[in-house]
Amino acid sequence: MDTIKLTIDNREVEVPKGTTILKAAAQMGIDIPTLCNFELEGLALKNHPGGCRICVVEVVGRRNLAPACITECMPDMVVKTNSLRAINARKTVLELMLSDHPNDCLQCAKSGKCELQALAAKLGIREIPYKGEQSHYQVKVSPSIVRDIDKCIMCRRCESVCHEYQSVGAIGAVDRGFPAVVSTAFGKDLIDTNCVFCGQCIVVCPVGALTEVDNTSKVLRDIANPAVKTCVQVAPAVRVALGEEFGMPAGSIVTGKLTAALKQIGFDYVFDTDWSADLTIMEEGTELIGRLTSFLKGDKSVKLPMMTSCCPAWVNFYEKFYPELKENPSTAKSPQQMFGAIAKTYFADKIGVKREELVSVSVMPCVAKKFECERDEFKTNGNPDVDYSITTRELARLIKICNIDFTKLPEAEFDSPLGESTGAAVIFGATGGVMEAAVRTAYEVLTKQSLPKIDFTELRGLEGIREAKVNIPGVAELNLAIVYGLGNARKIMEQIKAGTCPYHFIEVMACPGGCIDGGGQPYHHGDAEIIKARHKAIYEADANMPIRKSHENPSIQAIYKDFLVEPCGEKSHHLLHTTYFDKKTKFDLEK
Amino acid sequence: MEKIKNLADLRKMKEGMLGKMSLRENSNSSEAIIQIKVGMATSGIASGAKETMNYLITELDRRDIKALVMQVGDMGYCHSEPTIEVTIPGKEPVVFGKVDTVRAEEIIDKYIVKGELVEGILPANYRTI
Amino acid sequence: MAIKMHILVCGGTGCSASSSHEVIAELNKELEAHNLTDFAKVVVTGCFGFCERGPIVKIIPDNTFYTRVKPEDAKEIIEEHIIKGRKVNRLLYVAPDTNEHVSDSKHMEFYKKQVRIALRNCGFIDPENIEESIAREGYAALGKCLTEMTPAQVIEEIKKSGLRGRGGAGFPTGTKWEIASKSRVGEQKYVVCNADEGDPGAFMDRSLLEGDPHSILEAMAICGYCIGADHGLIYIRAEYPLAIHRLQVAIKQAEEYGLLGEDIMGTGFNFTIELRYGAGAFVCGEETALIHSMEGKRGEPTFKPPFPAQSGYLEKPTNVNNVETYANIPVIINKGADWFNKIGTEKSKGTKVFALAGKVNNVGLIEVPMGITLREIIYEIGGGIKGGKKFKAVQTGGPSGGCLTEKHLDTPIDYDSLVAAGSMMGSGGMIVMDEDNCMVDVAKFYLGFTVEESCGKCTPCRVGNKRLLEILTKITEGKGTMQDLEELKNLSNVIKDAALCGLGQTSPNPVLSTINNFWDEYVEHVTEKKCRAGQCKALKQYVINPDVCKGCTACARACPVGAISGTVKNPHVIDQSKCIKCGTCYEKCKFGAISIK
Asked: Which residue in A35, A503, B16, C356 could disulfide with A481, CB within 3.0 to 4.6 Å?
């Protein structure tokens, strides 16, 4: 490979051709600050507009300063990252940014995790010499996302994620000059746009302009209410990320501490979404087997490829962009909603309370789950199956509010009966997990033989679109695809529309790497290693489980025996399946 | 309208247009070519200035002499109408009186083509703007 | 009988605005009424440049130049001039220095020093008649390139001519074409014409497109031939309806004549051109922003590299040149690089079109050879400062340029000397200021423009320029401090140093150049709260001279805010804290006792 020699801050360095000054400097231990620059390496998510101008450096011989994030190294370049000229410009740019920022750090949801705040500290800002007009916009609250665009610094990360990565395009720069800001078209509320509430905009926002709707006070209120019982479910991806909020290394599996913390917060019943993930596999797997069998028998009316429907942002996506294909995804509800449906019926009965007397809370790596809870089809007499959802980040906040020293907490077990799960369930948290869990079960159900090897490594990985063939002896060779990122999903949907899609079954997750980098997870600030560590931990958790196939979960077997009768049967159809709606027209019409 | 199929077509069209544009081209470079002003006041018109002017234009064009023939108002020589003023580049303007078509031909032959003086030059006693 | 007289009437935007179309209609009516339609004809042309005196009517062959012609003047022009050869003196231009009527435009100071290369056909041909263009060598250069020259030879000729981009920065055009020609050979490429003219008061490109659209189309095709592109796009602001119309007509005619489209002149070369409309954002004049806008994206610049030649429109190699740059191309091919490069200075060849405006006697569109001095432009072409006032400064380069002063008057105008003097060529705006212009106010005006036109992408431009404007406003309101002046300097330098695109990088130039050249004025505003030009309203002070005041009470009765006190027959006093500087007292005082400080 061609390399280039250059000098940065009086030291020589040799880098491959095409390396930016920023990366060359980083490899020498020179930490040039950035703000708009963002990249999740290996996950195809990036934002390099070169717009904030925080990273400007002096290149000797160049007329003006160069943005280190997008300026490529050139042979014999002499770069000064800490000359008076560069430092003065960088500080001035930051001061300008702060001069149009509320600077209300003490009350800000992002305080302590804000990149702008950290930068002001790093550059030693002590006063803002530039006084003048400040932008002022109304705070906009949607079911999942809160937008306080007074805090927007126009880094455009959210815009890149929303447009390029998710191909949704709900938010983008509007207006020009000083009033330019990232917002929706015509300033509409997110709910009236094509936003799918994936929350990736929150994940990448360096400041407090985009945050989740905070439900922590609802939790405290309901736990304190003697008239209700509270139950909580925890999604698989939460257990491999929550530890980060308490200084533990990324990828720490904290299931036991997490359970203990929820109990200490005061939930009456601490259950596991993994349990309902196993249930999902029973239903979705059976549905897949049904569709496949009909198809193989020559029934052309069968909708194939079948697609997963666990991811609520993905559901929103096809309802809003591809309603004509809404028969393709599985009718199975997501694990969150299956849990809620069982909790408010089977479990409420079991403990002898009315559904209104049971508050069902979920802890999710996701903000779209908040919207999912609010869907009318998931309510009975106005009472939701899941009352509300909190994110991993909100749970961390609750733990802190409740005076719990998380790292020192002794481990605890989930409660019964909705707490028992298998390895097939925990992998729901990573891209390819639902597929692998489904294949494990479908294989054994169809062949009536035990799997020779449980790990389908060909279904794992972190590429945005993966395909695999799995041979089910005596039945068929299945063409499978696993996709994350809605931009990738759009490509598949276009294939289906064009009739060129070769797959039988497709898993789709909206977020990079699946739920492990969901919109409600601890901030990774662009460090892809954190996501990779969570990914690794998910499969580690699977490997540690004594039972690793959903259909072997004794608690699941029991509920079919006691209550549901059979997968895709009448009762489960009523409780565990749903229908999708055409939401395209509603969006297209002027409100 | 014919399509221009090659460069020769383009050149042909350009040549064809030259006649229509020469008036403007010539006036654009009036210093470099012969200028003839024809007095076109009532007395001029009455004594045949229009015929003289038409003759000059046709004749100069026939002989392929680049010249600018323009009408001006009364030159102040009512006794010698039609009057014309001829300016050859680099020379002082010369005014000729009683220019009918015969004299016009003489002026072209002698003064314009050969540079010889012709009788009947009038003293310049006016100025134009 | 052949047509013996042409009556050229400007149909450009400027003259149209002052009803030249009614003049045209009247002239035609009169010609018909007098049975003269085969003796004289009316030709609607593009701009003559002397827009301030429009509508312009020029009589050919005698070059009589009539100004400010009204529809009702048509009868007189036909009856007197066309029939009797008598000039209509009252419509002639009067030279401001000699007070004499000037008939032939060639003898007008305004035109004497001009050299019209880019504007060669403007005001000469009917822009909606392709044959008139062809008569003036239209498409001959394209024919020559396609049949007698290789693309490399054409590029070599352009390089040799020394032509530099007329959009402002002055990048060598031939080199630009060469880079585009060598970029990703064999792939789809595009030729783009930047007609997003946006400097305040500038209309060079508009006039060119209105007056001679075919020369632009021809040059774009030549560029396409050179770089290997078969499609061109003209990005033009939608506020230029006439230019758009003329281009549409021109493209249609060129296609009908086979001079655009497939197999042009039988050479196998294909080239088509389409129009793209901009919404009039100044920043879209920046080539990357322009390209994004054409792609249907937000009109925002992106970092270069990649340059458009590497990855431009639809990520394909793209050559972007400004209208005026293209206008020079056919002439260079027809007359040769050696003819062209004899005009101008060592590093800046040819001519430059300027929109001369402000406090000069002759306002309009001019084309002058590079190397001409500001003095020649202002005092000869421009006819000096209006009202005999004192020259103070001239702003070149629009909002990206700077103010030049008395000491720069004899600097030859070219790309490099203007930059050295602290301004820039820009696209050709030139605004002359006199002693009545406050330089802080001038800087504020330009900053106001860039604040409006910033796309908002980068922080220095989005917030920095806003803060600069706020500081300048503070100073003009008499609230500035010396500390503000320091911040003004630092902030200007940082914006220049750190902004993303040309707009931001040059936006502080009006501030920096006025600070450099008129520092005293800034200090006066701050320390003495005084505006010597009397432009800053907040700094005006109305004062009553007690020795002159008769105590008539007229002023006190007229003051709308009750700021004047005093008793009858005793001198009155204005309470400065209440005064709103409306000037009513000043007008009411019959004794001249009130003065403005």
From this structure: A503
Q: Is residue A84 within 8 angstroms of chain C, CB to CB?
A: no
Q: Does domain C439-528 have CATH number 3.40.30.10?
A: no
- Give the whole-number percent of chain C exceeding pLDDT 90: 80
Structural domain containing residue B47? 33-122
Distance between CA B31 and CA B13 in Å, rounded? 27
Q: How many CB atoms lie within 10 A of CB C257?
A: 22
Structure confidence by residue, pLDDT tens digits, C141-185: 999 999 999 999 999 999 999 999 998 889 999 999 999 999 999
Query: In order of start, what are the domains of chain A with their CATH numbers?
Result: 3-99 (3.10.20.740), 280-334+422-554+580-585 (3.40.950.10)
Domain C130-340 coded CATH 3.40.50.11540? yes
> Per the omega criterion (within 30 degrees of 0), is the bond before A417 cis?
yes
Reduce the DSSP state of residue C320 to 3 states and report it. Answer: strand
Domain shared by B49 and B21, yes or no: no
**Is C89 near chain B, with CB under 8 Å?**
yes
Tens of pLDDT along A203-231?
Answer: 999 999 999 999 999 999 999 999 999 99
ipTM of the modeled complex: 0.93
Question: Out of A55, A310, A311, A501, which one is annotated catalytic?
Answer: A310
pLDDT tens-place string over residues C171-181: 999 999 999 99
Catalytic residue among A110, A257, A369, A532: A369
The answer to whether the CB atoms of C464 and A65 lie below 8 A apart is no
Q: Is the pLDDT of residue A590 over 70?
A: no
- Residues B6 and B38 placed together within one structural domain of the fold: no
The answer as to whether B128 is a domain residue is no
CA-CA-CA-CA torsion for A298, A318, A160, A530, nearest 10 degrees? -70
CB contact under 8 A, A176 and C456: yes
Is pLDDT above 70 for A115? yes
- CA–CA separation, A442 and A436 (whole Å): 10
Query: B104 and B55, same structural domain?
Result: yes
Place of tokens 């042909």: B12
Which of C1, C135, C144 has the CB atom closest to B21's CB atom?
A: C135
Strand partners, A508: A483
Asked if residue B52 and residue B2 are part of one domain, the reply reads no
For residue A321, the one-letter residue type is: F
State the CATH number of the domain containing residue B89: 3.40.30.10
| Least confident interval from A246-250, A261-265, C18-22 | C18-22
**C-alpha distances in angstroms, C241 versus A14, A452, C190, C278?**
55, 75, 24, 12
| 3-state secondary structure (DSSP) of residue C357 | strand
Q: C5-111 maps to which CATH number?
A: 3.40.30.10
Task: Report B:52-71 residues touching C (Cβ under 8 A).
Answer: 53-54, 57, 68-71
> Of C2, C61, C258, which is closest to B5 when you measure between CB atoms?
C258
- Inform me whether the pLDDT recorded for A163 exceeds 90: yes
Which residues in chain C have Cβ-Cβ distances shorter than 8 Å to B9? 265
Does B101 fall in a domain? yes
CA distance A386 to chain C (A): 41
Q: Which residues of C touch B23 (CB under 8 A)?
A: 3-6, 60-61
Same-domain check for residues B37 and B94: yes
Q: Do B17 and B42 sit in the same domain of this protein?
A: no
- Say if the Cβ atoms of B4 and C106 lie within 8 Å: no
- The CATH class that applies to domain C351-434 reads alpha beta
Stated as kind and residue range, the H or E segment containing B17 is helix B7-28
CATH class of the C540-596 domain in this structure = alpha beta
Residues B71 and B90 in one domain: yes
Backbone phi, psi, residue A540, to 5°: -65, -45
Q: Where are the alpha helices (DSSP H) in C165-237?
A: 173-182, 204-211, 213-227
Strands A181-184, A78-80: pairing kind: unpaired
pLDDT of B78: 63
